Amino acid sequence: MFDKLYAITEEAGKALKKPFVKNKVQRALAGAADSYESQKIDTQEKIDKLMGEIANGAVDKIGELVEARLELKEIDAQAAETTAIKAEMFDK
Questions:
Q1: Which string of DSSP letters, residue by residue, matches 29-92?
Q2: For residue 29, what pLDDT is reported?
Q3: How far apart are CA 69 and CA 16, in angstroms?
Q4: pLDDT band with cut points at 50, 70 and 90 for residue 20
Q5: More reliable by pLDDT, 89 or 13
Q6: How far apart, in Å, are the Cα atoms of 35 and each of 7, 49, 85, 92?
Q7: pLDDT of residue 69
Q8: For 72-88, what is the mean pLDDT?
Q9: Nearest CA-CA partner of 78 in 46, 38, 47
Q10: Residues 9-35, buried b or exposed e (16+ Cβ, 10 A)?
Q11: Which residue has the higher pLDDT, 29 or 40?
């Protein structure tokens, strides 16, 4: 199993040396990072709105606030992982 995984990793490394493949992967990773950033902004706006509603007495929104904050943490984790993958693949 390890040999198969190593062979796949080696093939991917060789493919990334081709300019077309390298550029395509870099664009895809950059697009993913941009998408996560947009999601982050939207979620933060939702959190801000919910905080305002809760401040005005809408305590029924607390559950939504918790879910939105957990979603924000997940988006942050995905964005960080995307950045790490990009760095691992191209910042050598």
A1: HHHHHHHHHHHHHHHHHHHHHHHHHHHTT-GGGHHHHHHHHHHHHHHHHHHHHHHHHHHHHH--
A2: 85
A3: 36
A4: confident
A5: 89
A6: 31, 21, 16, 25
A7: 98
A8: 91
A9: 38
A10: eeeeeeeeeeeeeeeebeeebeebbee
A11: 40
Identity of the residue numbered 50: L
pLDDT of residue 1: 43
Site of tokens 């990009």: 86
Nearest Cα neighbor of 90 from 11, 5, 24 is 24
Amino acid at residue number 89 = M
